[in-house]
Amino acid sequence: MNDLLVAFEEYLSIVKALGKTTISSYISDLSALETLIFPKKLTELSTDEVLGFLATFPNKRTLNRKLSAINAFFNFCHKYHFEHTKIAVPMAKLPQNLPKYLDYAQISQSLSLIDRSTPIGLRDYALILFLYASGCRISEALNVQKSDINNEWLKIRFAKGEKERIVPLALVALEALNEYLRYQDMQSSYIWLNYKGEKLSRISAFKIVKKYLGVSPHVLRHSFASALIIGGADLRVVQELLGHSSLITTQIYTHIQKQNLAHTIENYHPLRRF
Fold it and tell me: 257 is in which domain, residue-wise?
Protein backbone atom coordinates (compact mmCIF):
# COMPACT_ATOMS: atom_id res chain seq x y z
CA MET A 1 0.00 0.00 0.00
CA ASN A 2 1.44 3.38 -0.98
CA ASP A 3 2.10 6.20 1.49
CA LEU A 4 -0.98 8.17 0.42
CA LEU A 5 -3.32 5.26 1.15
CA VAL A 6 -1.59 4.75 4.51
CA ALA A 7 -2.22 8.43 5.33
CA PHE A 8 -5.83 8.08 4.16
CA GLU A 9 -6.29 5.02 6.38
CA GLU A 10 -5.03 6.96 9.41
CA TYR A 11 -7.34 9.87 8.52
CA LEU A 12 -10.40 7.57 8.39
CA SER A 13 -9.49 6.01 11.72
CA ILE A 14 -8.40 9.06 13.73
CA VAL A 15 -10.23 12.04 12.19
CA LYS A 16 -13.41 10.42 10.83
CA ALA A 17 -13.57 7.72 13.55
CA LEU A 18 -14.96 5.14 11.14
CA GLY A 19 -15.24 1.48 12.09
CA LYS A 20 -12.49 -0.98 11.22
CA THR A 21 -14.70 -2.87 8.75
CA THR A 22 -15.57 0.32 6.82
CA ILE A 23 -11.93 1.41 6.70
CA SER A 24 -10.82 -2.02 5.51
CA SER A 25 -13.46 -1.95 2.74
CA TYR A 26 -12.41 1.54 1.60
CA ILE A 27 -8.72 0.64 1.43
CA SER A 28 -9.47 -2.66 -0.32
CA ASP A 29 -11.59 -0.92 -2.99
CA LEU A 30 -8.98 1.78 -3.60
CA SER A 31 -6.14 -0.73 -3.74
CA ALA A 32 -8.05 -2.75 -6.35
CA LEU A 33 -8.63 0.40 -8.39
CA GLU A 34 -4.97 1.37 -8.09
CA THR A 35 -3.89 -2.07 -9.34
CA LEU A 36 -6.31 -1.79 -12.26
CA ILE A 37 -4.96 1.57 -13.50
CA PHE A 38 -1.24 0.86 -12.85
CA PRO A 39 1.15 2.56 -13.63
CA LYS A 40 -1.20 5.54 -13.31
CA LYS A 41 -1.71 6.96 -9.80
CA LEU A 42 -5.07 7.35 -8.09
CA THR A 43 -4.59 11.12 -7.91
CA GLU A 44 -4.27 11.20 -11.71
CA LEU A 45 -7.75 9.78 -12.31
CA SER A 46 -10.33 11.88 -14.11
CA THR A 47 -14.08 11.88 -13.44
CA ASP A 48 -14.69 10.04 -16.73
CA GLU A 49 -12.25 7.30 -15.73
CA VAL A 50 -13.94 6.93 -12.35
CA LEU A 51 -17.32 6.62 -14.07
CA GLY A 52 -15.88 4.04 -16.46
CA PHE A 53 -14.62 1.97 -13.53
CA LEU A 54 -17.95 2.20 -11.70
CA ALA A 55 -19.87 1.19 -14.81
CA THR A 56 -18.44 -2.32 -14.45
CA PHE A 57 -20.53 -2.87 -11.31
CA PRO A 58 -24.21 -3.40 -12.17
CA ASN A 59 -25.20 -3.98 -8.53
CA LYS A 60 -26.05 -0.54 -7.13
CA ARG A 61 -25.10 -1.37 -3.56
CA THR A 62 -21.65 -2.56 -4.63
CA LEU A 63 -21.29 0.49 -6.86
CA ASN A 64 -22.21 2.88 -4.04
CA ARG A 65 -19.80 1.24 -1.62
CA LYS A 66 -16.90 1.70 -4.05
CA LEU A 67 -18.09 5.19 -4.86
CA SER A 68 -18.09 6.11 -1.17
CA ALA A 69 -14.46 5.03 -0.95
CA ILE A 70 -13.47 7.03 -4.04
CA ASN A 71 -15.32 10.19 -2.97
CA ALA A 72 -13.89 10.01 0.54
CA PHE A 73 -10.38 9.55 -0.85
CA PHE A 74 -10.56 12.53 -3.20
CA ASN A 75 -12.12 14.71 -0.50
CA PHE A 76 -9.17 13.78 1.71
CA CYS A 77 -6.66 14.53 -1.07
CA HIS A 78 -8.28 17.89 -1.83
CA LYS A 79 -8.51 18.87 1.85
CA TYR A 80 -4.82 18.18 2.49
CA HIS A 81 -3.62 19.47 -0.90
CA PHE A 82 -2.46 16.16 -2.31
CA GLU A 83 -4.66 16.85 -5.33
CA HIS A 84 -6.19 20.12 -6.56
CA THR A 85 -9.12 18.54 -8.37
CA LYS A 86 -12.01 17.51 -6.14
CA ILE A 87 -13.81 14.61 -7.81
CA ALA A 88 -17.31 13.91 -6.52
CA VAL A 89 -19.63 11.51 -8.34
CA PRO A 90 -23.32 11.34 -7.29
CA MET A 91 -24.54 8.16 -5.63
CA ALA A 92 -26.69 5.75 -7.58
CA LYS A 93 -30.34 5.75 -6.47
CA LEU A 94 -31.30 2.56 -4.70
CA PRO A 95 -34.83 1.25 -4.40
CA GLN A 96 -35.82 1.81 -0.78
CA ASN A 97 -36.21 -1.47 1.07
CA LEU A 98 -38.75 -1.02 3.82
CA PRO A 99 -37.46 -2.57 7.05
CA LYS A 100 -39.08 -5.78 8.22
CA TYR A 101 -40.23 -5.60 11.83
CA LEU A 102 -42.25 -7.52 14.39
CA ASP A 103 -44.84 -6.03 16.73
CA TYR A 104 -44.84 -6.63 20.47
CA ALA A 105 -47.59 -9.28 20.27
CA GLN A 106 -45.51 -11.39 17.87
CA ILE A 107 -42.39 -11.09 20.02
CA SER A 108 -44.29 -11.75 23.24
CA GLN A 109 -45.90 -14.88 21.82
CA SER A 110 -42.52 -16.29 20.80
CA LEU A 111 -40.97 -15.43 24.16
CA SER A 112 -43.69 -17.42 25.94
CA LEU A 113 -42.40 -20.57 24.21
CA ILE A 114 -38.92 -20.34 25.77
CA ASP A 115 -38.20 -22.79 28.58
CA ARG A 116 -36.81 -20.59 31.35
CA SER A 117 -36.10 -23.44 33.74
CA THR A 118 -32.51 -23.67 32.42
CA PRO A 119 -29.66 -21.09 32.32
CA ILE A 120 -29.63 -21.33 28.51
CA GLY A 121 -33.36 -20.64 28.34
CA LEU A 122 -32.98 -17.69 30.71
CA ARG A 123 -30.16 -16.36 28.51
CA ASP A 124 -32.13 -16.70 25.27
CA TYR A 125 -35.20 -15.03 26.81
CA ALA A 126 -33.14 -12.18 28.26
CA LEU A 127 -31.13 -11.67 25.05
CA ILE A 128 -34.22 -11.29 22.86
CA LEU A 129 -35.82 -8.86 25.31
CA PHE A 130 -32.52 -6.97 25.59
CA LEU A 131 -32.25 -6.53 21.81
CA TYR A 132 -35.87 -5.42 21.50
CA ALA A 133 -35.62 -3.05 24.49
CA SER A 134 -32.34 -1.39 23.49
CA GLY A 135 -32.33 -1.31 19.69
CA CYS A 136 -28.69 -2.48 19.79
CA ARG A 137 -26.89 -3.84 16.80
CA ILE A 138 -26.03 -7.45 17.57
CA SER A 139 -22.29 -6.62 17.54
CA GLU A 140 -22.91 -3.90 20.14
CA ALA A 141 -25.03 -6.20 22.33
CA LEU A 142 -22.44 -8.98 22.37
CA ASN A 143 -19.72 -6.54 23.46
CA VAL A 144 -21.74 -5.19 26.40
CA GLN A 145 -20.08 -5.82 29.76
CA LYS A 146 -21.69 -5.93 33.19
CA SER A 147 -20.15 -2.57 34.08
CA ASP A 148 -21.94 -0.96 31.10
CA ILE A 149 -25.32 -1.24 32.84
CA ASN A 150 -26.03 1.29 35.58
CA ASN A 151 -29.52 1.14 37.09
CA GLU A 152 -31.83 1.48 34.06
CA TRP A 153 -29.20 2.85 31.68
CA LEU A 154 -27.06 1.02 29.16
CA LYS A 155 -23.80 2.47 27.87
CA ILE A 156 -22.97 1.21 24.39
CA ARG A 157 -19.21 1.61 24.13
CA PHE A 158 -18.55 -0.41 21.00
CA ALA A 159 -20.91 1.36 18.65
CA LYS A 160 -20.47 1.67 14.90
CA GLY A 161 -17.85 4.30 14.09
CA GLU A 162 -16.39 3.96 17.61
CA LYS A 163 -19.03 6.33 19.06
CA GLU A 164 -20.61 5.94 22.48
CA ARG A 165 -24.26 6.35 23.35
CA ILE A 166 -26.49 5.76 26.37
CA VAL A 167 -29.97 4.29 26.14
CA PRO A 168 -32.56 3.49 28.83
CA LEU A 169 -33.60 -0.14 29.30
CA ALA A 170 -37.18 -1.21 30.01
CA LEU A 171 -37.74 -2.69 33.46
CA VAL A 172 -38.99 -6.01 32.05
CA ALA A 173 -35.74 -6.42 30.10
CA LEU A 174 -33.65 -5.59 33.17
CA GLU A 175 -35.58 -8.10 35.27
CA ALA A 176 -35.00 -10.83 32.68
CA LEU A 177 -31.32 -9.88 32.50
CA ASN A 178 -30.88 -9.96 36.28
CA GLU A 179 -32.62 -13.32 36.53
CA TYR A 180 -30.26 -14.72 33.87
CA LEU A 181 -27.19 -13.27 35.62
CA ARG A 182 -28.20 -14.82 38.96
CA TYR A 183 -27.86 -18.26 37.39
CA GLN A 184 -24.89 -17.42 35.16
CA ASP A 185 -22.01 -18.03 37.55
CA MET A 186 -19.22 -17.92 34.96
CA GLN A 187 -16.30 -15.57 35.52
CA SER A 188 -16.50 -13.13 32.64
CA SER A 189 -16.96 -9.37 32.31
CA TYR A 190 -19.20 -9.98 29.28
CA ILE A 191 -22.90 -10.66 29.75
CA TRP A 192 -23.83 -12.92 26.86
CA LEU A 193 -21.91 -16.18 27.11
CA ASN A 194 -22.11 -19.65 25.60
CA TYR A 195 -22.23 -22.83 27.68
CA LYS A 196 -18.41 -22.83 27.91
CA GLY A 197 -18.35 -19.41 29.53
CA GLU A 198 -16.98 -17.75 26.38
CA LYS A 199 -18.41 -14.62 24.79
CA LEU A 200 -21.37 -15.52 22.58
CA SER A 201 -20.59 -15.36 18.86
CA ARG A 202 -22.63 -13.51 16.23
CA ILE A 203 -23.53 -16.83 14.59
CA SER A 204 -24.82 -18.26 17.87
CA ALA A 205 -26.83 -15.10 18.60
CA PHE A 206 -28.29 -15.24 15.09
CA LYS A 207 -29.33 -18.86 15.64
CA ILE A 208 -30.98 -18.03 18.97
CA VAL A 209 -33.14 -15.24 17.53
CA LYS A 210 -33.88 -17.24 14.39
CA LYS A 211 -34.95 -20.25 16.47
CA TYR A 212 -37.62 -18.38 18.40
CA LEU A 213 -38.63 -15.51 16.11
CA GLY A 214 -37.74 -16.76 12.64
CA VAL A 215 -35.84 -13.54 11.86
CA SER A 216 -32.33 -12.12 12.22
CA PRO A 217 -31.29 -10.06 15.29
CA HIS A 218 -31.30 -6.92 13.13
CA VAL A 219 -35.08 -7.24 12.71
CA LEU A 220 -35.36 -6.66 16.47
CA ARG A 221 -33.49 -3.38 15.98
CA HIS A 222 -36.03 -2.43 13.31
CA SER A 223 -38.82 -3.55 15.63
CA PHE A 224 -37.48 -1.30 18.41
CA ALA A 225 -37.42 1.73 16.09
CA SER A 226 -40.79 0.93 14.54
CA ALA A 227 -42.46 0.62 17.94
CA LEU A 228 -41.15 4.06 18.92
CA ILE A 229 -42.29 5.68 15.65
CA ILE A 230 -45.76 4.11 15.89
CA GLY A 231 -45.96 5.32 19.48
CA GLY A 232 -45.32 8.90 18.32
CA ALA A 233 -41.61 9.32 19.13
CA ASP A 234 -39.72 12.16 17.48
CA LEU A 235 -37.53 11.00 14.61
CA ARG A 236 -34.46 12.75 16.05
CA VAL A 237 -34.88 10.94 19.36
CA VAL A 238 -35.04 7.64 17.50
CA GLN A 239 -31.91 8.67 15.60
CA GLU A 240 -30.07 9.25 18.89
CA LEU A 241 -31.23 5.95 20.39
CA LEU A 242 -30.19 3.97 17.30
CA GLY A 243 -26.83 5.73 17.07
CA HIS A 244 -27.36 6.90 13.50
CA SER A 245 -24.90 9.63 12.55
CA SER A 246 -27.36 11.07 10.03
CA LEU A 247 -31.12 11.63 10.24
CA ILE A 248 -31.32 10.46 6.62
CA THR A 249 -30.61 6.90 7.76
CA THR A 250 -33.42 7.05 10.33
CA GLN A 251 -35.92 8.39 7.79
CA ILE A 252 -36.40 4.87 6.42
CA TYR A 253 -38.87 4.45 9.30
CA THR A 254 -41.08 7.36 8.26
CA HIS A 255 -43.17 5.04 6.06
CA ILE A 256 -44.31 3.33 9.27
CA GLN A 257 -45.32 6.69 10.67
CA LYS A 258 -47.34 7.42 7.51
CA GLN A 259 -49.00 4.01 7.64
CA ASN A 260 -49.98 4.64 11.25
CA LEU A 261 -51.45 8.03 10.40
CA ALA A 262 -53.43 6.53 7.52
CA HIS A 263 -54.71 3.76 9.82
CA THR A 264 -55.78 6.38 12.41
CA ILE A 265 -57.74 8.38 9.82
CA GLU A 266 -59.33 5.25 8.41
CA ASN A 267 -60.52 4.06 11.81
CA TYR A 268 -61.41 7.26 13.64
CA HIS A 269 -62.32 10.00 11.18
CA PRO A 270 -66.11 10.47 10.88
CA LEU A 271 -65.95 10.49 7.07
CA ARG A 272 -64.79 6.86 7.10
CA ARG A 273 -68.49 5.90 7.19
CA PHE A 274 -69.14 7.35 3.72
Answer: 104-264
Q: What is the dihedral of CA 216, 222, 227, 229, to 10 degrees?
A: -170
- Which residue in 65, 160, 165, 199 is the catalytic one? 160
**157 is a catalytic site residue:** no
On whether both 168 and 118 belong to a single domain, the answer is: yes
Do 56 and 121 share a structural domain?
Answer: no
Which of the following is catalytic: 16, 60, 155, 218? 218
Would you call 218 a catalytic residue per the annotation? Answer: yes
Cβ neighbours of 138 (radius 10 Å): 20
Residues 64 and 108 in one domain: no
Q: Is 78 annotated as catalytic?
A: no
Q: Is residue 137 among the annotated active site residues? A: yes
Q: Which of 137, 180, 212, 222 is catalytic?
A: 137
Q: How far is CA 64 from the centre of its chain?
A: 17
Per-residue pLDDT reduced to its tens digit, 134-161: 999 999 999 999 999 998 999 987 655 5
- pLDDT tens, residue by residue, 252-274: 777 666 665 555 556 655 655 54
Active site residue 272: no
Select which of 11, 132, 180, 253 is catalytic: 253
Instruction: Tell me which of 66, 116, 123, 221 is the catalytic residue.
Output: 221
